[in-house]
């Protein structure tokens, strides 16, 4: 079946309209030595059944659930997604909806975004949230740029226990314009050491992650008090596992100025790393400096409730030099999935699910400790934690992979001093029997 919609006659008409004789003439501006002249070396076509077998064989090479038992989080988490959400997202009015520039015909999309924003503010304890961003890493980078923009300061501080990939993205955003990034060290208990911040007034913003990359819960109350010794310094809290706030007090309760992170856990499949959902919330007084777009509620001329794009601060809406960000966008379908997920669970369901995730990880942590595995960090954790295994565990880790058990993530590539340390995670998708099976393998 061909997927080219235009006939030869239509193509000829379009070429004539622009004064060309062939499609090849469209590419004359490309130097000849940069063009490919020989045909692509593609295999012979397969039948439908042969192609299915080929794709199945490729898929079998991947270590994914449910074929594998995954004790791995590190910023992307395997959670059950209600089937109702999968089916509702397939509705054409959701699946094909585009940017709602025309409110008179986009009320459904606008309302869905408004509901999403409401859920985010309640979950994170903040006053206002945008319509979403690309992912957690870019949301953190945009948060620090916003702090720089508001305070007019050139320096930020970032905890070493923020996800390593997030810190790389922050470097990409901030170093080229010449902003300074100070790295905050960690303490022996697995949390961030803020003692090096003697003068918070030197910083535009100070960012930590809670739960942090080690799964440890940071003391946001103490950090908020220390950072706000200068009221202009932004207290930025990042996260990779928003489900934790179903159990923990939200960052807004501790005075956070910006809360941002990854929303993948809330109704979005892992999908080998994307797409994600950048969640971003702040205080109302900073709303005009917030990147992205914002949907607001109003009434029409008949007094009926309606929704509109209240703020849209990208360069496609306003002058480029006035834009708060030129590279952010609303992940509309992912935001809708999260709104559906949170409305499906409700407050009670979210709290119960968060408690289940916490308890599963605690059971795994305790069982490993009883099996002789060292738990190096004493700070409380949510659904993942660090375990220090004896020398030689790398070989056992590989053997466990052969038995279709993914026993965590080695931390040495990210933190060279943590040799034999692994980050393990247990969500509601892991059963007690599967945890016990891992313990038996580790202890054998």
Description:
The chain has 444 residues and is an alpha/beta fold. It folds into two domains: 69-82 and 348-443, Aspartate Aminotransferase, domain 1 (Alpha-Beta Complex), CATH 3.90.1150; 83-342, Type I PLP-dependent aspartate aminotransferase-like (Major domain) (Aspartate Aminotransferase, domain 2). Helix content is 34%, strand content 14%. It is built from eleven helices and 14 strands. The chain has helices at 8-17, 48-60, 83-89, 92-95, 107-124, 136-151, 164-175, 220-227, 332-370, 393-402, 432-443; strands spanning 69-70, 128-129, 155-159, 180-184, 205-209, 234-239, 258-262, 278-282, 293-299, 305-312, 384-388, 405-406, 409-410, 421-425. The strands form four sheets. The chain has a seven-stranded mixed sheet, sandwiched between helices. A hairpin with a 5-residue loop joins strand 9 and strand 10. Helix 5 runs parallel beside helix 9 (332-370). It starts with 7 loop residues before the first helix and ends with a helix. The model has no long low-confidence stretch (mean pLDDT 93).
């Amino acid at each position: 079946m061909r997927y080219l919609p235009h006939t030869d006659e239509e193509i000829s008409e379009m070429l004539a309209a622009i004064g060309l004789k062939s499609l090849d003439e469209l590419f004359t501006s490309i130097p000849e030595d940069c063009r490919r002249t020989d045909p692509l070396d593609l295999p012979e076509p397969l039948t439908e059944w042969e192609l299915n077998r080929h794709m199945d064989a490729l898929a079998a090479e991947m270590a994914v659930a449910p074929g594998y038992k995954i004790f791995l989080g590190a910023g992307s988490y395997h959670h059950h997604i209600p089937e109702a959400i999968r089916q509702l997202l397939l509705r054409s009015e959701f699946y094909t909806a585009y940017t709602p520039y025309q409110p008179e015909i986009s009320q459904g999309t606008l309302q869905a975004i408004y509901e999403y924003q409401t859920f985010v503010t309640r979950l994170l304890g903040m006053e206002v949230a945008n319509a979403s961003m690309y992912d957690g890493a870019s949301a953190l980078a945009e948060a620090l740029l916003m702090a720089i923009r508001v305070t007019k300061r050139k320096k930020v501080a970032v905890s070493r226990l923020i996800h390593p990939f997030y810190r790389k993205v922050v470097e990409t955003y901030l170093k080229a314009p010449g902003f300074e990034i100070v790295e905050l060290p960690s303490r022996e208990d697995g949390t961030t050491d803020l003692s090096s911040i003697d003068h918070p007034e030197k910083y535009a913003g100070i960012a930590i992650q809670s739960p942090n990359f080690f799964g440890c819960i940071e003391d946001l109350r103490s950090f908020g008090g220390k950072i706000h010794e200068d009221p202009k310094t932004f207290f930025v809290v990042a996260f990779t596992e928003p489900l934790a706030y179903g159990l923990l007090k939200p960052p807004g309760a501790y005075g956070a100025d910006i809360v941002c992170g990854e929303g993948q856990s809330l109704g979005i499949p892992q999908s080998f790393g994307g797409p994600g959902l950048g969640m971003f919330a702040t205080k109302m007084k900073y709303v005009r400096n917030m990147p992205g777009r914002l949907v607001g509620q109003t009434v029409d001329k008949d007094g009926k409730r309606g929704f509109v794009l209240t703020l849209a601060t990208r360069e496609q809406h306003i002058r480029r030099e006035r834009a708060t960000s030129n590279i952010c966008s609303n992940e509309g379908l992912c935001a809708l999935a999260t709104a559906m997920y949170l409305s499906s669970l409700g407050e009670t369901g979210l709290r119960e699910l968060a408690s289940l995730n916490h308890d599963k990880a605690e059971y795994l942590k305790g069982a490993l400790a009883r099996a002789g595995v060292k738990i190096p960090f004493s700070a409380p954790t949510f659904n993942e934690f660090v375990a220090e295994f004896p020398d030689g565990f790398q070989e056992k880790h590989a053997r466990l992979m052969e038995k279709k058990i993914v026993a965590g993530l080695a931390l040495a590539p990210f933190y060279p001093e943590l040799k034999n340390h692994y980050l393990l995670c247990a969500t509601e998708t892991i059963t007690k029997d599967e945890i016990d099976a891992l313990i038996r393998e580790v202890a054998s």
